[in-house]
Structure formats: C-alpha cells, structure tokens
C-alpha cells in the first residue's frame, strides 16, 4: 500500500496555504508534518482524509481494492475528540467500533492499552482532558485501518501516556501501517520522513 500526493495545493478563504506539494508514503513508514502555526498542517490532514478538496493536484491510495475509497482505509483524528459526553467511555468506543467496521481490539482491551482500564464505566463528561484524548486514541485500536491521519495526537497526554501511545503507533507501523502526523512535538512513531510545510508556501513575485 502506498499514499501518493501529487502537486497538491490548498486554499483556505482568500489564502493559498501551500502549493506544488508532492510526497509518497510507503507501507511501514511515517510522515511527520511540521511547520509554524497557520502553515496548513491541519488543512493538509483534512484534505488527505477527504474532508476538504485540494485547490490543485490529487491524492491517491495505491494497492487497495477501491483506490478512491480513502475513508474505508483511514482513521482521521483531529483536534476535537468526537465523544458523546453523556455516554460512558465504553459506550463511546463500542459505538465507534460498530460504525467503523473491520473490528480489531475489543473495547475492554483498547481501553486497557491506552491506560483507561477501570474508567470505562464513567461518563466522558467527567474524564480529564488527557483521559479524553486517550479515549480518542483508543478508537484507532478498535477498527483496523492501515492509514492513520493524526493531528497533534499527543496534546494533553502526560509523559507516560505519550510513551505508551508512541509504542502503539510504532507497532502499527511495524505491521505495515502508515501514519501521517501533524505535530509541534518531537514524535517517534517509527521510520519515515519529516515534511516541513513551510517550504511549500506560494512564492510571491518580487515587486519591480
Ligand atoms: N475554513 C477556513 N476558512 C478560512 N481560513 C481558514 C479556514 N480554516 C483554516 N483557515 C486558515 O488556514 C490557515 C491554516 O490553518 P491550519 O489549521 O491548517 O494550520 P496549522 O498549520 O495546522 O496551524 P497550527 O500549528 O496552529 O495548528 C490559518 O491561517 C487558518 O486561519
């Protein structure tokens, strides 16, 4: 499996954020996307997830049965955790496991993996910010999807949760998964490259 971006451009409102972006990500590799605030890291991830359209170029996933069906092969984890506050952690995760399909870990095992074993019966409303983030990350584990698109995945995580998630991410990559992660933090998710989005800002003509 291979994720390929060709001559990608992204416009938000009146601004061209980046253009002429090419990359190819192979199975078992990681792409860390960096750049100052506002360069378009989240916009790139949304674009890869199919939540918005590029202003130019295209993205494709090679080596899958339905090449255009990105959604079936990708997990997108944005800034928002997408939990129902009134439901318990277990109920939220069971919902996502049923909706996402391709079941992987059980709800109980996924909660254990992210260090939430014992808290599954609590309503999400009473969880701390870091616990909510851990629950969002557990979603990656209940449904098997090769491509993880992660926007600042370690926000609000304490040092041990960061290490724990780093190990889960490296295991995913070691099994042939792929990760594209936007981050300001140094993340070790396995072998791969760093993409500095700042290098793809549009070049403005110099005034005469
Ligand atoms: N819906 C929108 N309409 C207009 N402009 C937008 C929209 N969404 C984002 N932008 C602008 O696009 C730019 C890039 O935003 P984006 O969130 O992709 O940056 P980022 O690199 O992820 O930033 P950060 O490091 O702060 O998370 C920002 O200037 C933002 O204001």
TrEMBL record:
Alphabetical list of InterPro entries matching this protein: AAA+_ATPase (IPR003593), ABC_transporter-like_ATP-bd (IPR003439), ABC_transporter-like_CS (IPR017871), ABC_transptr_haem_export_CcmA (IPR005895), P-loop_NTPase (IPR027417)
SMART domains, A to Z: AAA (SM00382)
Superkingdom of source: Bacteria
Pfam family, one: ABC_tran
Keywords: ATP-binding, Cytochrome c-type biogenesis, Membrane, Nucleotide-binding, Translocase, Transport
Domain ABC transporter: 3-208
Gene3D superfamilies given in the database record: P-loop containing nucleotide triphosphate hydrolases
Family, per entry: Belongs to the ABC transporter superfamily.
Protein's recorded name: Heme exporter protein A
Upper lineage: Bacteria, Pseudomonadati, Pseudomonadota, Alphaproteobacteria, Hyphomicrobiales
């Amino acid at each position: 499996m291979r994720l390929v971006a060709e001559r990608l451009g992204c416009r938000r409102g009146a601004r061209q954020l980046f253009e002429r972006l090419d990359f190819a990500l192979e199975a078992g590799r990681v792409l860390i996307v960096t750049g100052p605030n506002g360069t378009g890291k989240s916009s790139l991830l949304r674009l890869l997830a199919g939540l918005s359209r590029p202003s130019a170029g295209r993205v494709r996933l090679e080596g899958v049965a339905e090449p255009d069906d990105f959604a079936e092969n990708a997990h997108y984890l944005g800034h928002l955790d997408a939990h129902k506050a009134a439901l318990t952690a277990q109920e939220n995760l069971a919902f996502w496991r049923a909706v996402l399909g391709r079941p992987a870990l059980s709800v109980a095992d996924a909660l254990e993996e992210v260090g939430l074993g014992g808290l599954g019966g609590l309503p999400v409303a009473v969880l701390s910010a870091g616990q909510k983030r851990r629950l969002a990350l557990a979603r990656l584990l209940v449904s098997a999807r090769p491509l993880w698109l992660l926007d600042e995945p370690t926000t609000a995580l304490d040092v041990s949760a960061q290490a724990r998630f780093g190990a889960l991410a490296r295991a995913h990559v070691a099994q042939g998964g792929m990760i594209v992660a936007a981050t300001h933090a140094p993340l070790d998710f396995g072998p791969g490259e760093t993409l500095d989005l700042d290098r793809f800002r549009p070049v403005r003509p110099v005034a005469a």
